[in-house]
Known about the structure:
- The protein has about 325 residues and is an alpha/beta fold.
- The chain has two domains: about 30-120 and about 245-315, D-Maltodextrin-Binding Protein, domain 2; about 120-220, Periplasmic binding protein-like II (D-Maltodextrin-Binding Protein, domain 2), CATH 3.40.190.10.
- The protein has helices spanning about 1-20, 40-55, 70-80, 95-100, 135-145, 160-170, 185-190, 200-210, 260-270, 275-280, 295-315, and strands at about 30-35, 60-65, 85-90, 110-120, 120-125, 150-155, 175-180, 195-200, 215-220, 245-255, 285-290.
- The protein has a six-stranded mixed beta sheet, with helices on both faces.
- The longest helix is centred in the C-terminal third of the chain and has 22 residues, at about 295-315.
- The protein starts with a helix and ends in a 5-residue tail after the last helix.
Amino acid sequence: MKRLFLIVILLVGTSGTTWAQQPWPAKPIRFVAPFAPGGGTDFIARVAAQKLNEALKVPVIVENRPGAGGTLGAEIGAKAAPDGYTFTVIAGSYSVNPSIYKLAFDPVNDIAPVIQFSQGPLLVVVHPSLPIKSMKDLIALAKSKPGGLSYASSGQGSIVQLATELFLHMAAIKAVHIPYKGTGPAITDTMAGNTQFLFGSIAAVMPIVKQGRLRGIAVTTAKRLPALPDIPTIAESGVKGYDVVLWHGLIGPKGLPRPTVDRVNGELNKALKAKDMEEKLATDGVTAAGGTPEQFAAIIKRDIETWRKVVQMAGVKAE
């Protein structure tokens, strides 16, 4: 009986060791998306998951875990086992949250950056009835009516609010912030003329601009968007140095094996160069990014510091 017991223990141990030594990936991979289905982050997560599934030949499942401005899902991802089977798709708001919320994890040191997936601008829009056809017009009107203009945002403490506050500070003008519970209501009230301008995502506002119900006057990035070549940048419009990029990227938990990081980074970099990927991303108003894990890590650190300064300067607090 003792001999039989030892044989069973040996077999069980050997089986466990064999499973542990199987080459990665040996089972489905999870992409945590910290926002609800249907939004930009969910869209990017599903596009990236599909491409990684095709490359690795294992299921890549998107798990939506919304809440607390994306911090709930980010925490789940950061605290997952660093075994290469859980990644988190983050948006630019990830770099805002450390200045707005009390996080249960370190947004820099408790993660393993993998790749920046996409990048794109916000589009500044105004009601077409206003005598504003450029950012210079908007700035001039704001200076003629100090505090007389209002702007909508997708919520208190959102990256949209901070991007607008940074613009107001750099342009030396003032406007009243009207926060809404999401991009939809913010756009609706701007179309109704209840607020005068809005910094909105390309995917959300461009269809309305094409319908003539809002007027697009500038993009927030340092370079013009290829899909909107006639719309200048804010920097071109007199606010030199202004540059706000919305991005999405992939991170893993701290301790993720470097070979796994390199494999995922390599496969997604290849995917981002494909023509069909360019077309898919264009539907969401963004372009492909790519690059090394180190480059993405630097962007996260830089943006966390940038938004920390804006939050302090504007006195922004969570709702």
